[in-house]
Amino acid sequence: MKANKLERKMKISKEDILSAHERIKPYIHRTPVMTNQSINQMTGIQFYFKCENFQKIGAFKIRGGMNATLTLSAEQLKNGIATHSSGNHAQALAYAAKTLGIKAYIVMPKSSPQVKVDAVKGYGATVIICEANQAAREDALNKVVAETGAEFIHPYDDYRVITGQATCVKELLEEVPELDVVITPVGGGGLLSGTCLGAFYFKPGLKVYGGEPEGAADAVLSLQSGKVEKAPFIETIADGLLTTLSEQTLGIIKEHISDILLVSENEIINALRLVYERMKIIVEPSCVVPLAAAMRNANLFKGKKVGIILSGGNVDLTKFGTWFPAK
Amino acid sequence: MKANKLERKMKISKEDILSAHERIKPYIHRTPVMTNQSINQMTGIQFYFKCENFQKIGAFKIRGGMNATLTLSAEQLKNGIATHSSGNHAQALAYAAKTLGIKAYIVMPKSSPQVKVDAVKGYGATVIICEANQAAREDALNKVVAETGAEFIHPYDDYRVITGQATCVKELLEEVPELDVVITPVGGGGLLSGTCLGAFYFKPGLKVYGGEPEGAADAVLSLQSGKVEKAPFIETIADGLLTTLSEQTLGIIKEHISDILLVSENEIINALRLVYERMKIIVEPSCVVPLAAAMRNANLFKGKKVGIILSGGNVDLTKFGTWFPAK
User: Fold this and answer.
1) How confident is the model over B55-105, as pLDDT tens digits?
2) What SS3 state is found at B279?
């Protein structure tokens, strides 16, 4: 599709992303971009890692959560914000609410790790525990919204959130304008669709790829069929990437994406080991899916400057023993 | 002792450290200084972490190893360099030799983890495996030095090495001139004695502390008696801190140090968890001994600006399971 036609059609403009960035800047970190000589030598690819594991709340999700919250009117803010999430979006809204002195209601499935529940409570949010299925989560959320008048902010199926996530690749391009490619993990597609828009507006030639686990392969199927599909099976340590795309995220992604690349569990563990051993930073398994994808498809990226968004670093340390078992 | 009298007595001058820094700069990273709001809030101390885990070879040891190597004459360089070490000093010399295109001979006890032997060999050094005791290490080293004419560079009992390590606190003070205190781990005392000298020359009012595990408590005893003592027992996960001080390092340390503070194994694990979970970086257990010491002695440091040298990040990932066992 021609750029000018596409631009008219798009619901998020360049100005939206620029204002979102100005809006959230006082509340987020400008995360560093790291490089690593050993990984470059090993792969023949020049990687630039945007370290969102060092972001506030330990993940990029604060960008979207904070942007959505800051666009609410004083009237809306009065009643607080709400979501259902067992992951980083829960912490993002809890942190945003604490920062702005408003209320947050977070519905969490009872399967959520205690450490995540504690983190959300630690920011002063009200946690509502529900059964661990989609219907129970939505019921509990609808109930709390009805009772409190809080504003629901979806983890990714929300243009305000997608616009916030788009600021990440904008920063990366400000540091590395000569980038050829950017790869992000894909779960619900908030980061990937935001990155697609950021690339489109701030460096039109930039190729965007998504990395997805074979054990949660919904996005690759959705891209093929053109509509939101479920994964044939779910089995991956990349536990941030289990959700399906939404109409809104798929709509943006299919206009802009070069491809979605699958990786195996072994490839994820190997990439995780590489980042831990060589870069000395802690990232979530979901984060290294793009690195694993680049290494598996080295022919596509050899000699190129490839940006990787390391999306977060909130790990349960007691899982290390299963990821890297003693021999 | 008055400063001017002390300066006359000292074998390492301010100019030595300044030249060492210029000498090694092209070969090392200027490592970042990180801060962490949660750890500051939790402790009431303002911490500045000098991240030598991001240094070349993953540890500060490259500073001393590179400085010592670069001060050799062309005649000496021709025959290469040698040491005995199972740890980061081995990698430092191997890397220095590779960078300068000379030979390195590294005597390693047969108890060394294969991953460390492989890393040293990966830099092209010749590895000589010996029995795991001090006499065998020295015998093997003497033999290789006699055969090759290589220059022996001790891991810490060497003024050229100590001078190199002093550049780390110099960089930290350049970034945070208002620092009140600096704390380093203490094993053989190379980093601590270098830090003492750096403080003395570049910020005379800066207090210097050492952090030492209760399970390797030789430095605290040596400071009391004034001569090099052995630890009453060795049992600690801080495996970079098992060696005793030397005459040279103790000599410098006892002139300058405020105190050496002991920490328990539990305190080390807790500090390690804090750095992994909050700062999202990988450091060796030895590194967090200073943080653990500051937290145990919060009364000494409350409200102060405290520099912590995070000395390295070379960990065996398969040990994570024993440090952070599943509940």
Assistant:
1) 999 999 999 999 999 999 999 999 999 999 878 999 999 999 999 999 999
2) helix
Do A46 and A183 share a domain, yes or no? Answer: yes
B114 touches chain A (CB under 8 A): no
* Mean pLDDT taken over chain A: 94
Nearest CA in chain A to B283: A280
- Domain end marker among A111, A135, A152: A152
Q: Which chain B residue lies closest to A325 (C-alpha atoms)? A: B318
CB B175 within 8 A of CB B201: no
Query: In terms of domains, do B44 and B128 share one?
Result: no
pLDDT at A1 over 50: no
Query: Are both B65 and B45 inside the same structural domain?
Result: no
- DSSP state at residue B111: T
Question: Is residue A134 domain-shared with residue A80, that is, in the same domain?
Answer: yes
Provide the number of structural domains found in chain B.
Answer: 2
User: Which domain does B130 fall in, by range?
Assistant: 61-152
Query: A263-312 pLDDT, tens per residue?
Result: 999 999 999 999 999 999 999 999 999 999 999 999 999 999 999 999 99
Q: Is residue A124 located within the same domain as residue A165?
A: no
Q: Decide if B276 touches A, using CB distance below 8 A.
A: yes
Q: What is the pLDDT of residue B114?
A: 80
Cβ contact A280:B311 at 8 Å: no
Name which of B272, B317, B324 to mutate to probe chain A: the one with the most chain A Cβ atoms within 10 A of its Cβ: B317
For residue B91, which of B61, B128, B67 has the smallest C-alpha distance? Answer: B61
Dihedral through CA B68, CA B73, CA B77, CA B82, nearest 10? -40
> Which residue in A has a C-alpha nearest to residue B310's C-alpha?
A280
Quick one: A81 and A53 in the same domain? no
Interface mutation vs chain B, best among A27, A91, A320, most B CBs within 10 Å:
A320
Whole-model pTM over 0.90: yes
- Spatial neighbors of A105 by CB under 8 A, at least 6 apart, are A80, A81, A82, A83, A125, A126, A128, A144, A145, A148, A150
Do the Cβ atoms of A108 and A90 come closer than 8 Å?
A: yes
Residues B123 and B212 in one domain: no
What is the pLDDT, as a whole number, of residue A86? 78
Residues A197 and A94 in one domain: no
User: Does residue A276 sit at the B interface (CB-CB below 8 Å)?
Assistant: yes
Section B255-269 average pLDDT:
98
We report the CATH number of the domain holding residue A174 as: 3.40.50.1100
Q: Which residues of A touch B283 (CB under 8 A)?
A: 280
Chain A positions touching B276 (Cβ under 8 A) are 282, 317
